[in-house]
Amino acid sequence: MERKRIFAISGVKNSGKTTLICRLLEIFKDKGLKVAVLKHDGHDFVPDVPGTDTYCQLQSGAYGTAVFSAGKYMLVKQQPQISEKELAEFFPEADLILLEGFKYSTYPKIEIIRKGNSAESVCNPKKLMAIATNLDAEERDALSVLENVPFFELDNAECIAEFILSDYFR
């Protein structure tokens, strides 16, 4: 089986990961790529909303529910643990799997460092491919990150997308 292409967009809470990922998704879609996103939630998210049938079923003790229509489906299964690698297998058609978060992982990643939100790199330096930031040149120079890690302007999603594609899809 072909190795899944997995790339993380990492950073501290409220650094702009979701915003950047949404911009990247638009760019990748325009290029004809199928991209899935996986996000880990350390707060045991509520997968449904009160008032829906599946919410009621889960609250009543179902260990899993599924709802589907002609064009999509949603599956909720309660189990102790599943890895991002296992979840990626749910998307066999994907050209790329983006991970939101995973700053301590060894996946290739771009870290977001945003002025007023984070002042230094917090990611595992292994496979830190680039930094996306809005820091000025002096602030960038003060960062203690690996040498040869390129910087990208945080608002330049097109450039970041090209970097991911050129670096990762060689």
TrEMBL record:
Signal peptide: none annotated. GO terms for molecular function: GTP binding. GO terms for biological process: Mo-molybdopterin cofactor biosynthetic process. Pfam families: MobB. Residues 6-133 form the Molybdopterin-guanine dinucleotide biosynthesis protein B (MobB) domain. InterPro entries: MGD_biosynthesis_adapter (IPR052539), MobB_dom (IPR004435), P-loop_NTPase (IPR027417). NCBIfam families: mobB. This is Molybdopterin-guanine dinucleotide biosynthesis protein B. It comes from Blautia wexlerae.
